[in-house]
Amino acid sequence: MQGTQRLSEIEFACDREKLKRGLLEETTLKLEEEKRRSEEILYSMMPREIAERMKNGDRELTTCETFDDVTILFGYVADFTEICNKVEATEVVKLVREVFSLFDLLSENHKVYKFETIGGGLYMLVSGVPVKIVGHAREMSIMALSMLEKIQTVVNPFTNRPLELQIGIHSGPVVAGVIGQATLQYCLFGHTVNIASRMQTTGAKMKIHLSEATNKELAGTGFITEYRGSIPVKGVGNLDTYWLNGRDASYLNSAGAV
Predict the structure, then answer these.
(1) pLDDT at position 255
(2) Distance (Å, rounded) from C-alpha 200 to C-alpha 194?
(3) Which of 35, 55, 46 lies closest to 179 in space, CA to CA?
(4) Minimal CB count within 10 Å: which of 98, 111, 129, 174?
(5) How far is CA 233 from CA 21, 39, 169, 216, in A?
């Protein structure tokens, strides 16, 4: 009888240990899932390279860097304010989600980083930050051409016609770093950001407006550009600017061209 009782106690103890192990495994899986979700949120707030540095103990100030040459793009959904005034709010949110999700997917195929969305209709990209690369203007120009192509697959809910995009690009130096405490944000600072924004606002629908600096970066890389002229740019003065019209087919067909 004592042996049988002892056996029952052992079996009960084993069952309790199995239950504990099961709960521990379940808790571990939940923790891993929460960690994954937290990392996804962090990666959506800043570049993965910067997020990894923050996770490894880098302070905000140590993320600050100067980049001598990058390319910045601003893209604006044309007539976005009118769309907001004419259609239901849910339709506007659906439209923005569709457009920017499309651009997010495109950015994954190029060496560009989605910096932020501003005011619903404005989309900002940078190439050469936080990873310095050669050919950042080339990567951004390919991205811009792809954006013009893909935006035509999205319908304006007010006019029932394809949406239109207005794009501006400029290349130059910036300072980048993480700011904030409660809400961290990776930010760009410098005159280059302002000029890129001006290229967008002084551009035209379904056109890619380039600064002279970006046009020089593209020289000899197979892109077709057209001199627009000297235009007044607020806060800067007159600047020579260009339209990016496409890529040279003969260059694309040459050996090693991408």
Answers:
(1) 42
(2) 10
(3) 46
(4) 98
(5) 67, 41, 14, 19
Q: Coil, strand, or helix at residue 254?
A: coil
Residue 19: exposed, middle, or buried by beta-carbon count in 10 A (0-12, 13-18, 19+)? Answer: exposed
Compute the distance between CA of residue 3 and CA of residue 99 in angstroms, rounded to an integer: 73
Q: How far is CA 248 from the centre of its chain?
A: 27
Between CA 71 and CA 48 the distance in angstroms is 19
Q: Is 71 left (phi over 0), alpha (psi -120 to 50) or beta?
A: beta
Considering only CA atoms, which of 40, 74, 65, 51 is closest in space to residue 184?
A: 51
Rounded CA gap, 4 and 23, in Å?
Answer: 29
User: Maximum distance among all alpha carbons in the chain?
Assistant: 103
Measured CA angle at 221 (ends 218, 222), to 5 deg: 110
pTM: 0.80
Report residue 25: phi and psi, to 5°: -65, -40
Q: How many CB atoms lie within 10 A of CB 38?
A: 11
Beta-carbon contacts of 36 under 8 Å, excluding residues fewer than 6 positions away, are none
- C-alpha distances (whole Å) from 251 to each of 45, 229, 247, 255 are 38, 26, 8, 8
d(CA 157, CA 155): 6
**pLDDT tens per residue, range 191-250:** 999 999 999 999 999 999 999 999 999 999 999 999 999 999 888 899 999 999 999 877
CA 39 to chain CA centroid, Å, is 17
Per the listing, tokens 């290229």 go with 199
CB 211 within 8 A of CB 191: no
